[in-house]
Amino acid sequence: MNLRDFLTWAQEFGALLEVERAVDPRLELARVMVATDGRPVLFDALAGYPGWRAVAGMCAQRAHFAAALCCTVPELVGRMADALANPTLPPVVESAPCQEVVEKVADLTRLPIPRYHPDDGGPYVTSGVAVIKDPEFGRNIAFHRLMRLDDHRFAARLVERRGTHTAWEKVKDDLPIAIAIGCPIQVLLAAAMSPEKGVDELAIANALVETPLVKCHTVDLEVPAEAELILEGHITHTLVDEGPFPDLTGTMDVVRRQPVIEIDRVTRRRDPVFHALLPAGLEHKNLMGMPREPTMFAAVNEVCRCTGVYVTPGGMSWLHAAVQIEKQHEEDGRRAIWAAFKGHTSLKHVVVVDTDVNIFDSADVEWAVATRFQADRDLVVLTDQPSSSLDPSATQMPGKKTRTAKMGLDATAPLDETRRGYERALYEPVDLAQYDIKGDM
């Protein structure tokens, strides 16, 4: 589902908020995004940027992903796991919407790049999907926040030891790059995944929903044909200060020396829509957490029958998860805990529950902990484990992997004759439409 298809869907289902008054991309846009976080919002006009619109909240709810992939919310993890295991090469087309308008002289100041927070190092692209080719492993796509420096340069935050950074380190000259903004939802989801080296994330996107590509004009790269905006350029070996900027936790990330990207060509759709992604908002959290779910799902399925995984927003969609299993052996709960940590190495706390517990309902998961868990019997604690630098309570040492303690709770019911005492009293569902009920339900 491309961005415009999503807007049509959201409007038809009454989910879309529309702001008609011109909004300033400098700080004002972010304030409105914070106030409406969780809803898709279309900004019809941007102050100082005639002809541009902006959208926020495309990925703020799991229902949006489900609509894009034509499945239910519980089926999302299976769809992602399937695409991760069976990527399919995307088709390449001759012409594409993302190249309807060609600007041969790049001028980044003409793009409505937002400034989100007063303390930001500058205006930031937050939804840009970078496309590069590793000289050893081939095409790779990923998210990188981009701080605009001037009319043709960005400072790019490249996370060390990840795909783009390792490819950039391998080359002595500049590394060609294309940045796609306003991508289809399946591309956004695939770009946030971490497959094995050599697996093309655009092939994962194509396995989710057909995703045509088109060749760039000035670099030997292919980009999503239905994106709104493409920036073609190269990553230099010049370093500048990048940051500060809000991280997933909502706290300000530090200033680092990062590579400069020089942009040589801009192509876009007519009547373009800029995708603004709020740092630490629900859209950011979903795109961080959801792509970890299929790897956890696969890991847990190696040791027992896994029926669902949910990386929860309360844990910043990164550090906490609920795992649902169809328990067949008494040790399945503990096995699932160990496997979940293997499937997502940054995971800090995990709760394992039975199939009668709704992992998307925090109250239901808490009920399972309250009624099926005993700390002296069902708690797993792992000390001094590799973890995430996003956790301020973890032990963080410059140049070394962050370390933390991890905890798993086996909140599954036993399989022996006492299991009946753990089951809930259930009622037959009714159709309330047949009752004359007054008042809002």
Descriptive notes:
With 441 residues, the protein is an alpha+beta fold. It has helices at 3-12, 28-35, 62-69, 76-85, 163-170, 185-191, 201-208, 282-289, 293-301, 332-343, 362-372, 375-378, and strands at residues 17-19, 41-43, 53-56, 92-93, 101-103, 124-125, 129-134, 138-143, 146-148, 153-156, 175-181, 213-215, 222-224, 229-242, 245-246, 252-253, 256-268, 273-275, 305-311, 320-326, 349-353, 379-386, 403-410. Helix 4 packs across helix 9 and helix 9 packs across helix 10 (332-343). It is globular, with a radius of gyration of 23 Å. The two termini are 32 Å apart.
What is this structure's SSE topology?
Layout: H1 3-12, E1 17-19, H2 28-35, E2 41-43, E3 53-56, H3 62-69, H4 76-85, E4 92-93, E5 101-103, E6 124-125, E7 129-134, E8 138-143, E9 146-148, E10 153-156, H5 163-170, E11 175-181, H6 185-191, H7 201-208, E12 213-215, E13 222-224, E14 229-242, E15 245-246, E16 252-253, E17 256-268, E18 273-275, H8 282-289, H9 293-301, E19 305-311, E20 320-326, H10 332-343, E21 349-353, H11 362-372, H12 375-378, E22 379-386, E23 403-410
Helix pairs in contact: 4-7, 4-9, 6-7, 9-10
Short description:
This protein is an alpha+beta fold. Helix content is 23%, strand content 27%. The chain folds into two domains: 89-270, Electron Transport, Fmn-binding Protein, Chain A (Pnp Oxidase, Chain A); 287-416, UbiD C-terminal domain-like.
